Amino acid sequence: MSMQIKNAFRGVRFPEATLIAVLVFGQGSTVVPSLVASEVQSEPDTSLMEVQSEPDRSLTLGWPLLERPKLTGDWFGTRSLMSDSGFNWDIHNTNFYSGVAAGGLEQTFQYRGRNDILLNINGEKAGLWQGSFIDLHAESVFGTNINQSAGTLVPIILAESVPIADGSVTALTGVKFTQALSETVMVYAGKLNTLDGFGQPFTGGAVGQDGFMNTHLLFSPVLARTFPYSTFGAGFVVVNSDQDWLFNFNAYDTNDTPTVSGFETFFDNGVSLVAGANLPTSFFDRLGHQTLFVTYSTGSYLDLEASAYYDPGVGLILPSSRTRGSQSIVYGFDQAIFVAEDDSTRSWGLFGNLGLADTNPSPFHWSANIGVGGASLVPRRERDTFGIGYFYLGVSDSLKQLAPQVLPIQDESGLEGFYNIAATPWCHITADLQAVTPSRQRADDLLLFSLRAKFDF
Known about the structure:
By secondary structure, this protein is mostly beta strands. The chain has a single domain (about 1-455), classed as Beta Barrel (Porin). Helix content is about 5%, strand content about 45%. The chain has helices at about 1-10, 80-85, 395-400; strands at about 85-105, 110-120, 130-145, 170-180, 185-195, 230-240, 245-255, 270-280, 290-300, 325-340, 345-355, 365-375, 385-395, 410-425, 425-435, 445-455. It has a 16-stranded antiparallel barrel. Strand 15 (about 425-435) and strand 16 (about 445-455) form a beta hairpin. The model is unreliable at about 1-55 (pLDDT under 50).
């Protein structure tokens, strides 16, 4: 990332590889350290951006269907022309067919899908000024959310619960403006989709469209109270010459407003402050990261106030006083174990997180996860990925004691394993199995089976 900024300040024009915040989901995000909220995003798909003397047939509809990187190709040259003018598209559709095969609140299978349209604009190429970038993220969800049948407090499939947990909606959840101030410093502001670029290596990305599906294995749930999904905010990030971030700071409106403008409630319930530090490592001559995040919110909350990552129960109303102020601290690590000699982007390794939060108003006092994931170990399946992980969530005593007879709550724990098959460069099919002990004591230990199909357009 910093190399991109460095190139930007060496000449009059940015080279095409200088997109600082292109929108991503998936293995491209493995260059981003764990728990980075919106400030640094992965490299653009340069296969769609390079200026060539002859059209790249792999991006046209004339190339064999199973070999082109995007299902719709280069739009007969339009996509490359738009990229040359600074407009870079990432469009994908993700489908889930999931079922509670045993336990939970209800044994049922449900379908839910989502569409994501992401646009990165290189301001200089588009006729604005040097070092400027604009990122837009529109998304829609439809179908029935399986989370309601599981009995968990944390979404068992996160991608089915954002931007809303129930029903169907189409919303513009991200409008982000970024300005590079130097080779190593960027500032940004706008309506921020905080999970864009928020991906820990070896997990497959923060939203759960390419790797793990359960929220517990994507990031620490202790952030549920202080970390909104889509809201107004601003911040800055410092990166090094190897494109790793070193420090970032963010200020967010505590109001989560993914489906409305947010102007009516603009910072009327305080501010959430998020600071992070990252130490790149090279143990065993393999890349890794040690990260630490601290959050503090000045907002006031109820114990049972839902968030994007916390569902206390539909229609449940219990008397509870509001509590002002919430804080959390999260330590994370990742460490590559295997890196392919012929392709450094193909790797697998370990990851883990340990989080601690207040006991009121945060619904979760502590959480931990550990797992292994990354490039497939199966011969001749270089584009496939896999993951196996375990998590444990310590629910706050204040929530357990709120109404032990009406709402008996216990700690939540579970295992998840997945295998992601790259059927074509633009189609990925994932089989996923979860065994979970839900927080709601009235829900039995559950077994969840899911199939996911993602198509890149």
